[in-house]
Amino acid sequence: MSAxxxxxxxxxxxxxxxxSCRADGNYTGTEYAPNMYHPVAYEPLKQVxxxxxxxxxxxxxxxxxSEYYSSNPYNPHQMTMRLPVEGTIPRRxxxxxxxxxxxxxxxxxxxxxxxxxxxxxxxxxPIPLSDNIVAEGEVLYMTYCSPCHGETGKGDGLVGQQYKxxxxxxxxxxxxxxxxxxxxxxxxxxxxxWPYGSQIDPADRWKIVHYVQKLQxxx
Length: 219
Hints:
Blueprint: H1 3-20, E1 55-60, E2 63-68, H2 97-100, H3 103-108, H4 116-122, H5 131-144, H6 146-149, H7 158-163, H8 179-188, H9 202-216
Antiparallel strand pairs: 1-2
Helix pairs in contact: 4-8, 5-9, 8-9
C-alpha cells in the first residue's frame, strides 16, 4: 500500500472514531442483555392476583416489556415472597415485645442526643433483670465495649490503653450513673466515646446496661 493510501486510511479511521463520539444525550448506545441491568422489581409484601389491577411497563430499547405487577412468575403460585429455607437462623432470638409495649420504648424513640440529663432521670430499663439477660449483656459487652472499657470495666482494654481517658465503671461517679444515662451514652455517645445506636439495636443496648450495672457494683 502506498503512503498516500495509507494516510487516507488513517484519516478515515480517525474520522469514524470522532463521528461515533456524539454529545447527543438521547442516544445511550446499544445495550446487550438489558435484563441484566434493568430487572423487574417485585413488591415482596404485596400479592396482587387480579391481572386487571395494574401492570408495570419497562423499556428495553425499542421494545416494551409488560410485567404483571407484584406477581413473580418464577415462584410457585406467582408468590412475591418465599418462606426462609429450613434451618434458617433468625438475626436474634429475643422478641422486643416487652420493650415495645413499654413507655420507655416510646420515650426513647424521641430522645434528643443532647438530653442526657433527661434520659438519666426518666429512662428505666424495660427488660426484666435475670441471669440469662445479664449473660447476654456480657456477650454483647465483650463484643462492642471491652476493646476500650476492658473485660472488667476498668478502662484497660487494648484500645483504651492507647485512646486514654476511658473511665473505670467501678470507681468514683461512674458507680452512680443511672440506667438511663448509660443507655443514652451507648446510643448517642458522650465525650470521646462514639455512638453505637446504629450498630446495636435498642433491646441489646438495654442488656448491655444490665451488665454494666453489674460492673459498677463489683468490688
